[in-house]
UniProtKB/TrEMBL annotation, chain A:
<feature type="transmembrane region" description="Helical">
    <location>
        <begin position="50"/>
        <end position="67"/>
    </location>
</feature>
<feature type="transmembrane region" description="Helical">
    <location>
        <begin position="20"/>
        <end position="43"/>
    </location>
</feature>
<feature type="transmembrane region" description="Helical">
    <location>
        <begin position="285"/>
        <end position="306"/>
    </location>
</feature>
<keyword id="KW-1003">Cell membrane</keyword>
<feature type="transmembrane region" description="Helical">
    <location>
        <begin position="262"/>
        <end position="279"/>
    </location>
</feature>
<keyword id="KW-0813">Transport</keyword>
<feature type="transmembrane region" description="Helical">
    <location>
        <begin position="73"/>
        <end position="90"/>
    </location>
</feature>
<protein>
    <submittedName>
        <fullName>Branched-chain amino acid ABC transporter permease</fullName>
    </submittedName>
</protein>
<keyword id="KW-0472">Membrane</keyword>
Automatic annotation (TrEMBL), chain B:
<comment type="similarity">
    <text>Belongs to the leucine-binding protein family.</text>
</comment>
<keyword id="KW-0732">Signal</keyword>
<dbReference type="Pfam" id="PF13458">
    <property type="entry name" value="Peripla_BP_6"/>
</dbReference>
<dbReference type="InterPro" id="IPR006311">
    <property type="entry name" value="TAT_signal"/>
</dbReference>
<dbReference type="InterPro" id="IPR028082">
    <property type="entry name" value="Peripla_BP_I"/>
</dbReference>
<dbReference type="InterPro" id="IPR000709">
    <property type="entry name" value="Leu_Ile_Val-bd"/>
</dbReference>
<protein>
    <submittedName>
        <fullName>ABC transporter substrate-binding protein</fullName>
    </submittedName>
</protein>
<dbReference type="InterPro" id="IPR028081">
    <property type="entry name" value="Leu-bd"/>
</dbReference>
<dbReference type="InterPro" id="IPR051010">
    <property type="entry name" value="BCAA_transport"/>
</dbReference>
Length: 311, 441
């Protein structure tokens, strides 16, 4: 074992760097999904579509800025602007126009409604952006690459992958924790989540809290998509692929858990990367094997609390 | 258990009319004297959604454009053609149901199936059962005609074996000194099958190459950073990948950004369809293929005016260059036109029934924008393969091949009656002496 570790330490170090970046992207999507479930108690299948639309919008804005001759750093403005636009417009429209009508209904109905929305948004993407791959990587190119030592060799990583993705994910995690625990609005959200009736009786407008939370969750999904857009290529179906993995993260963490989402995203991200190095044939199933292993031991997820709602 | 197919009023009348005329007394209604229909309905299965719609939608556009052109010129045998499209994305169960519906309820005369090899494997037995001419217009699996006989199925383009063997021969001819190789293919039938074809042929033609990584990420994965890191660390001389669509675009962009193209020579047999999207991001100097011979800069197309007309008409209508699925659709439609012309002529101007139409396909020669394709006795089309090295010219804003080698289809196709893997094992290194020289420039 010691010999094996000695031989593979360098490779595992590389896997760790890859796993961190991957975990960061997965976390950004899963945390929004988890937040929405924690407060609204709705499993939003269309969350993947918000990710995809955020990514497409960011790429379109980035290409538009580049065509207008704006400097490459404007690509970063495009990422944030895309998340704000998608979250700020689609979030309230979906919550007020659709979800508000199905709160308290059976979960099967809620799943069907959000799945229908997912299908509609998938087709809307094809109508707007077509089916050919779309990409805009100005933010990634701007920062260039960093040579990571690997024995006597070096392995280039993009600085975006090494620093920006984990940095934004950490900032999001810290910001969310601070917002929910230290601000009045955050505490109101936690109160509604914990006991909606009592919170309403004390004068809290639960409808407003739901609207705010869903908008915020939609914005997080769109930000995840926007952050992913410089690293990947956008094609039809990208939302579906994302939502499946996000569910694995959320189920591993425990529904409604934010810090848990970060830990399980890390587990799944690093586990998947390690599989690429050590047993590539298991790469695809590793996230789900981790999920199954966790749920076998703790059916409520790593950090889930039985019969207690938490944000 | 199957559900009986409901009879439409029209089909009920047709059955009644057939019974009255006595044609139903003969086994197989297809032997009846066929009447010239009011329109020629063609069922086309293609991807209209999901990641493979990057191929399916351009192919659909091509079919619509060419059918418009055919109808403006008077149709086929004086009969206007109409396409009925089916999305392959929902899966084979849905596809098989739609295939039956189109043939039995809609009265489709010819079926075009499909992009996915899985779809073709599901649809081809239906062509046997329903005795309906089915053109396999894009799928590549070698299993179709190697594992069974399908008298009503015809593939109007090449298939996996020549599409993988030709790039390997190109590599062995132009860069024979490589010692190590890695593969990164998508984790599904095409990715696994194409690797088996490559590995089997490589072991026969150049034994001793060390495979340093075998990576099969999920189809449609948004990120290949980890795989690229591993390839950077392994430093193979050659990286073989049959990635396509958005996956290939992502792989090339991520690999180019991290200078993997500077360390290893890539061999990308399905590159052509992604070159427009990649533009200048595609590095020069790597081996690229197009699942056939239909490059925009084909060095000597058989009919340059036909190629230019097709490309220009497509560009004018859809504002992009046609990619290989567009050419494959063109080939299928061209084959259908040629087969109907042959069958109608053989019948002295009469409209062919299903058997007569299928008979016309056997041994058929039909023109494409770049060459002539012949259908073998097993139904497989013989399409030349052109492989070259990525480069940039003033004519196109994206990479095209230079130093192209035109591989004659018969040289790289498994002979009739043999299985590809068995045949590939018999290849000898002296095959390389038969490979034509690259066409300079």
């Amino acid at each position: 074992m010691a010999g094996w570790l000695e031989q593979n330490t360098l490779l595992l170090g590389l896997a760790l760097l890859d796993g961190l970046a991957y975990a960061a992207l997965v976390f950004m999507v899963a945390v929004g999904l988890n937040l929405v479930f924690g407060v609204l108690r709705i499993i939003n299948i269309a969350h993947g579509s918000l990710f995809a639309i955020g990514a497409y919008t960011a790429a379109s804005l980035g290409l538009f800025f580049a065509a207008r001759g704006l400097p490459p750093w404007a690509g970063y403005v495009a990422l944030v602007l895309a998340a704000a636009l998608v979250g700020g417009i689609l979030g309230p429209v979906i919550e007020a126009g659709l979800l508000r009508r199905i709160y308290g209904h059976e979960q099967v109905l809620q799943l069907l409604v959000t799945f229908a929305l997912f299908m509609i948004l998938e087709d809307a993407q094809k109508l707007i952006w077509g089916v050919q791959p779309v990409s805009s990587d100005a933010p990634l190119r701007l920062l260039g690459t960093v040579d990571v030592p690997f024995g006597e060799d070096v392995v280039p990583f993009t600085a975006y992958q090494l620093f920006v993705l984990p940095g934004v994910a950490l900032a999001t995690l810290a910001g969310l924790a601070w917002f929910l625990r230290r601000t009045l609005t955050g505490r109101v959200i936690v109160a509604v989540t914990t006991d909606r009736e009592a919170a309403t009786a004390m004068g809290i407008d639960a409808r407003r809290v739901f609207l705010l939370t869903f908008t915020f969750g939609a914005g997080l999904a769109a930000l995840g998509g926007a952050l992913a857009s410089p690293t990947t290529t956008l094609v039809p179906g990208i939302g579906a692929a994302t939502i499946v993995l996000s569910f694995a993260v959320v189920a591993t963490a425990g529904l409604g858990q934010i810090e848990g989402a970060a830990i399980s995203a890390l587990l799944i991200g690093i586990g998947r990367s390690a599989a690429v190095y050590l047993a590539p044939e298991f790469e695809v199933v590793v996230p789900y094997l981790i999920m199954v292993a966790v749920l076998l031991v703790r059916p409520q997820g790593l950090f889930g609390v039985v019969e207690t709602r938490r944000v | 258990m199957s559900t009986p197919t409901p009879l439409t009023r029209r089909s009920a009348l047709a059955v009644a009319a057939g019974a009255v005329s006595g044609s139903l007394l003969w086994p197989g209604s297809g032997r009846a004297q066929a009447q010239k229909p009011a329109e020629l309905k063609v069922g086309i299965t293609t991807f209209l959604s999901g990641p493979a719609s990057v191929f399916g939608v351009p192919a659909k556009q091509t079919a619509e454009m060419l059918f418009d052109e055919i109808n403006q010129a008077g149709g086929i045998g004086g009969v206007p053609v109409r396409a009925l499209f089916v999305d392959e994305a929902p899966g084979t169960d849905h596809l098989v149901g739609e295939f039956r519906r189109l043939v039995q309820n809609e009265g489709v005369q010819v079926m075009f199936a499909s992009i996915s090899s899985g779809s073709c494997l599901a649809c081809t037995p239906l062509s046997d059962e329903l005795r309906k001419t089915t053109i396999l217009w894009d799928c590549g699996t070698q299993r179709i005609f190697e594992e069974g006989r399908h008298p009503f199925a015809f593939r109007t383009q090449g298939y996996a074996t020549p599409e993988v063997l030709a790039p390997l021969l190109y590599l062995l001819k132009t860069k024979p000194d490589f010692r190590t190789l890695a593969v990164i293919n998508q984790d599904y039938a095409w990715g696994r099958d194409s690797w088996e074809i490559w590995k089997t042929a490589m072991d026969a033609l150049k034994p001793g190459v060390r495979v340093v990584a075998e990576l099969f990420p999920r189809l449609g994965a948004p990120d290949f950073s980890t795989e690229i890191t591993r390839l950077l660390a392994a430093r193979p001389d050659v990286i073989f990948s049959t990635f396509w669509g958005g996956d290939l675009v992502t792989l090339v962009r991520q690999a180019a950004e991290r200078r993997l193209f500077e360390r290893s020579t890539f061999v990308l047999p399905v590159a052509e369809a992604s070159m427009q999207i990649l533009g200048r991001t595609m590095p020069a100097g790597h081996i690229i293929g197009t699942r056939g011979d239909h490059w925009n800069n084909h060095p000597r197309p058989k009919d340059p005016a036909r190629l230019a007309r097709f490309v220009e008409n497509y560009r004018r209508r859809f504002n992009e260059y046609p990619i290989y699925p567009c050419h494959h659709m063109y080939q299928a439609i061209s084959a259908m036109q040629a087969a109907y012309a042959k069958a109608i002529a053989a019948k002295g101007g009469g409209w062919p029934n299903d058997q007569e139409l299928a008979a016309a396909f056997r041994g058929l020669e039909f023109p494409t924008p770049t060459s002539t394709i012949t259908l073998r006795e097993d139904g497989q089309g013989l399409e030349d393969q052109i492989v070259g090295v990525s480069t940039f010219t003033e004519r196109f804003p994206f990479a095209v091949p230079k130093d192209m080698i035109v591989f004659p289809a018969a040289m790289v196709s498994t002979p009739v009656g043999q299985k590809s893997v068995d045949w590939l094992k018999t290849l000898k290194p002296d095959l390389l002496a038969q490979v034509p020289a690259p066409i300079a420039g």
